[in-house]
Every structure is written in C-alpha cells, then in structure tokens.
C-alpha cells in the first residue's frame, strides 16, 4: 500500500554498490534490482551496454541461489517458501532486462550456451505451466536477438517449444530431450568427450492444486504465437524500425519452417493467387477421424491467430496492468479450458488494436514508435506488413484459409472467421485506403510471373536494406494480384463448404453447414 520513494542520489549509490566487485553477490543483486526498477529505457540501455558482463555475473549467481533455495524440501513454513518464489521472480525480472537491453551483444552469441541452458531449465516440462509460459517469452526474446546467427540446436529448441512437436533436425532433439533423462543435454553431444553436463531439472514444479491446461499442445502453441508478436517490440534495438520488421520476418519464417507442415500436413504449395487455379474441388464425405486429430485444435488456433491480423475489424486491446516482477507463483490462476469457449480464449490469445484507417503499406509510417504509441499497435502493423510483404506470405495466408474451408463443421467458429476475413476484403474494394495490398490491381509493367519476380529481386538484392524495404513496401509492385484473382480464389476455396456431404444423422452439423453456406452466399449479394 505504501512504498518508499527512491531519489536520484539513492539510485546513483545503488549503481556504485552493484558495480563494486568487493561486495557479495546477494548485496550486488539487491542494488542492481533497485536500479533496474527505477531507471528509464534510455538509461537502462546505456547501463546494460556498459556493464553487461558484471550484470550477467550477478544475475547468474542470484539464479543459482534461487534454484538452491527452491530445492529445499525440508522447509514447511509457507511464508519462507513464498519468499523463495518471490526471489525467483526478481531474478527472472533482471534476466528479461538483460535480453531486452543487450540484443546486439546477444546476437554475437555472447553467453550463448549459458543462456540456452537457463532457458532449458525454465522450459522443462516438469515446471509449472505459468513459468513455462514466461520462459517461452524469454526464449523468443533471445532467439530473435540471435537471428540468423542462431546455432542449429537453438533452431531445434524453437521447433520443440510446443509439446507434441518433435525436432525435424537430425541429431538435434531440442527440448524433447528434457523428457528423456539422463540424455537431456539439449545442445551438447555427450559422445564428444568423457565430461558431460549435469542433468537439467525443473526449477519450479507445479504446486499442489495447480491445474494443467486441458489441451497442452494448443495452449503452448497459442503462447508461442502470442510471444512472436508481442515480444518483437520489447527489445531495445538501436535501429528499432528495421530490426523489429526483420525480427518478426525471421520468427515467422522459422515458424513456417518447423510448424507449418506438422499442423497442416496437407498444405498445398501450389496455391497461388497470382496464377489462380479455378478448378472446383471434389465432393467430400464427412470423416469421423478428422475432427479427432491431435493437431485439430492447433489448426483452429493458427486460423484464428492469422485472421486476427488479416481481418479489418479488430477487438480493442486492453493492456494488462504492468508489474515490476515476473509472476510464476499464482496458485489460484489456472489456464483456461478448451479453445472453443470465447471468453477464456480471449484471455489467452492476443487481443489486437483497432486497425487505423490509413494504408499499412509504408513501413516508415507505421512502425515508428512514439512516446504515446501503443506497442501492440506497432506489433500489429509489423505483422500485417510481413504477411502482405511477399508473394510467398500472401499465398501462405490464402492457403491456410483454404485449409479452414476444409474443416469439419465441428470447427465452425474458425470457418466463420475465414469467411469474415474474405468478406472484409471483398466489401472494402471501393476504399483504396483500407484495401489489402494484394487486392490492388497490378501495374502494366509489374512482373506477372514468379520467374520475373525472382529476377527482379535478384537484381535488387544489393539494395536490401532499411530504405529498400520501405521503398518496396510503399510501391507494392511485386505483391499486387487484383480483385478478380482474389474473387477466383475465394470462389474455388469456399466451394468446399458446399461440397462436404453431411449425413442426416448429424442434424446439428447440417444446421452449421446451412449457416456457413448462407454466409458465403451473402458475400455475393454485396
């Protein structure tokens, strides 16, 4: 209720005290935390860049102490145990600041194995779901800072952030190794020498009475999708505008590389709105096994996540109350039930800001963060620019939506989201300001085939810097397909909802099919 006001002189004293190597580690960490909590972003960036080595040393000592305290099973007093959990939260708070303020140093693989091992401990399947969710955020902060400099075992860790997804990289099990001790080394090959690292153990196991997510695969996939959006604007890059765009492009490409084929095994690479296939799909019969696929809930989550950025009507984001520490110890908080209840889904999935009516085609205009600008609005614009920034990503959006039209009617909410996205696109064709870039009519001299586009990109490869990306986005020459192409794709893809044969023994599914077909037909009445 009451807090002690910290003056500038006290902060300066704390800076000197945490820099004093003669003091013990707990005292240095206490003063480091005081400093971090009471300095602004600019001061924090300068402080961490100047003292990154000693700050990491202090943090690591504090983390080891917090781990040891949490492992003391003979403590029976609740207040003492709670103090140890609060100690862990304080340590993770400083860890997050290291990841936020030192991206350039981390990008050079500074403390790469040490940070990876810490993240592996936090992501251990034996931890509380709350801690694992926070650890996913930390991993995305670290992984995007590494970028293309990330080692292959870091890619394997990213590919296995969601339980049930195995690493496709030969010889790199990723986080799945944590479930198979004593070979849970994540990134170290024990066959290379007689010395092997100690076993990676959970840091904070689930407490008594804590409920696990009803669908852990879906829960952690939504956590990952949320993190790759919200965390791109948290890092304090020297060149935010370009680095944030580059970071999400990197994360999105990695997500497609490692998760796309597993979630959608029937993904069709031939989908191309620039050369649309106008052949109507074949009549299908309802499959009883399709809706029971372990990946079906993940497909629904990915569809809804994608539709959140492509639809023109967005829910208003309500920013959560900020806290100076990372919470990992709420016994009363439990993950929401299965994804088909909208209220809990809204709490776990990212809520997005109402899209501005101005065009989102210019990176320079939409990703410049001002003092009063909502970071989530910046992230929203970056995501949409990446989704609409290349033919490959635009075709990805339409193919994922095509997959949505193939869903059984037990997943009707996801199908309605896809229909709503196309409805917005088609009905806004008279308003150029809100029109998606791929619906703009191609210019007469713009490349019309993938080969011509590839030649143009190769010719301009030397100009792939900040100014080039802004210029190419402002013109949108390469990604324009035109309204007719989009209509052809929508007609052929949406025909799947009419061509799914549902037997009379499923009256509720028949009602869903009739409603969805009406929604498709209503688009043509516009």
UniProtKB/TrEMBL annotation:
Q: Where is the composition biased (Polar residues)?
A: 351-367
MF terms per GO, please? GTPase activator activity
The family database entries (InterPro entries) matched by this protein are listed as: Tuberin/Ral-act_asu (IPR027107)
One GO CC annotation: cytoplasm
For the region Disordered, give the residue spans: 314-367
The source's superkingdom equals Eukaryota
Q: What is this protein called?
A: Ral GTPase-activating protein subunit alpha-1
> What is the scientific name of the source organism?
Cacopsylla melanoneura
Query: Taxonomic lineage of this organism?
Result: Eukaryota, Metazoa, Ecdysozoa, Arthropoda, Hexapoda
């Amino acid at each position: 209720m009451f807090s002690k006001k910290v003056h500038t002189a006290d902060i300066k004293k704390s800076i000197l005290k945490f820099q004093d190597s003669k003091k013990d580690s707990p005292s240095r960490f206490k003063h480091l935390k005081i400093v971090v909590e009471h300095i602004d972003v600019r001061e924090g960036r300068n402080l961490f860049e100047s003292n990154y080595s000693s700050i990491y040393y202090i943090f690591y000592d504090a983390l080891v102490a917090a781990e040891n305290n949490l492992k003391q099973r003979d403590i029976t007093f609740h207040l003492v145990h709670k103090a140890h959990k609060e100690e862990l939260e304080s340590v993770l708070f400083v860890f997050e600041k290291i990841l936020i303020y030192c991206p350039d140093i981390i990008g050079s693989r500074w403390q790469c194995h040490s940070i990876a091992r810490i993240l592996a401990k936090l992501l251990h399947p034996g931890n509380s779901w709350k801690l694992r969710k926070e650890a996913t955020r930390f991993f995305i902060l670290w992984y995007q800072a590494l970028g293309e400099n990330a080692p292959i075992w870091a890619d394997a860790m990213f590919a296995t952030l969601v339980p049930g997804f195995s690493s496709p990289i030969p010889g790199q099990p990723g986080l799945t190794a944590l479930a198979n001790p004593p070979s849970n080394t994540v990134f170290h090959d024990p066959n290379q020498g007689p010395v092997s690292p100690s076993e990676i153990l959970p840091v904070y196991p689930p407490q008594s009475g804590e409920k696990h997510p009803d669908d852990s695969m879906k829960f952690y996939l939504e956590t990952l999708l949320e993190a790759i959006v919200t965390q791109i604007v948290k890092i304090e890059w020297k060149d935010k505008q370009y680095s944030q765009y580059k970071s999400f492009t990197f994360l999105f490409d990695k997500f497609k590389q490692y998760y796309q084929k597993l979630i959608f095994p029937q993904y069709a690479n031939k989908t191309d709105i620039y050369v649309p296939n106008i052949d109507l799909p074949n009549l299908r019969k309802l499959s009883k096994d399709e809706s029971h696929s372990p990946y079906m809930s993940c497909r629904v989550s990915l569809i809804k996540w994608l539709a959140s950025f492509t639809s023109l009507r967005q829910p208003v984001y309500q920013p959560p109350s900020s806290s100076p520490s990372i919470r990992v110890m709420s016994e009363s908080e439990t993950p929401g039930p299965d994804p088909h209840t909208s209220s809990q889904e809204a709490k776990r999935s990212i809520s997005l800001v109402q899209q501005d009516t101005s065009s989102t085609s210019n990176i320079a205009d939409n990703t410049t963060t001002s003092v009063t600008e909502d970071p989530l609005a910046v992230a929203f614009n970056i995501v949409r620019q990446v989704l609409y920034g290349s033919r490959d990503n635009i075709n990805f959006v339409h193919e994922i939506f095509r997959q949505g039209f193939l869903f059984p009617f037990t997943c009707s909410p996801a199908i309605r989201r896809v229909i709503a996205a196309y409805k917005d696109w088609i009905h806004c064709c008279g308003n150029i300001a809100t029109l998606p870039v791929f619906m703009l009519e191609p210019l007469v001299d713009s490349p019309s085939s993938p080969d011509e586009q590839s030649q143009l990109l190769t010719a301009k490869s030397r100009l792939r810097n900040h100014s080039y990306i802004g210029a190419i986005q402002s013109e949108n020459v390469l990604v324009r397909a035109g309204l007719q192409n989009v209509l052809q794709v929508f007609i052929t893809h949406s025909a799947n909802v009419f061509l799914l044969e549902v037997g009379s023994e499923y009256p509720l599914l028949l009602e869903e099919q009739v409603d969805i077909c009406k929604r498709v037909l209503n688009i043509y009445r516009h």
